[in-house]
Amino acid sequence: MRGKSETEQLLMLLTDVHNKGNAGATLKEIMIQLKEELPKITKQKEYSMK
């Protein structure tokens, strides 16, 4: 099964972050989520380029 494209994953992450921000999440919570999730998306891209 083929995974979601990098663009789709980034869009989902940004949408989630936006929704959490609107729900009252702190900037620190948002930054932690981005720090955890962005490398996963980037790493997938590196593997697909090989």
Brief account:
The chain is mostly helical and 50 residues long.
List the helices and strands and how they pair.
Elements: H1 6-22, H2 27-49
Helix pairs in contact: 1-2
What does this protein structure show overall?
The chain has one domain. It is flat and about 35 Å long. The chain has helices at 6-22, 27-49. 80% of the residues lie in helices and 0% in strands. With 50 residues, it is an all-alpha fold. The model has no long low-confidence stretch (mean pLDDT 86). The chain contains 2 helices and no strands. The relative contact order is 0.15. Helix 1 (6-22) runs antiparallel to helix 2.
Task: Give the biggest beta sheet.
Answer: none
Shape: flat
* Derived structural class: mainly alpha
Low-confidence stretches: none
Keywords:
mainly alpha, 50 residues, 80% helix, 2 helices
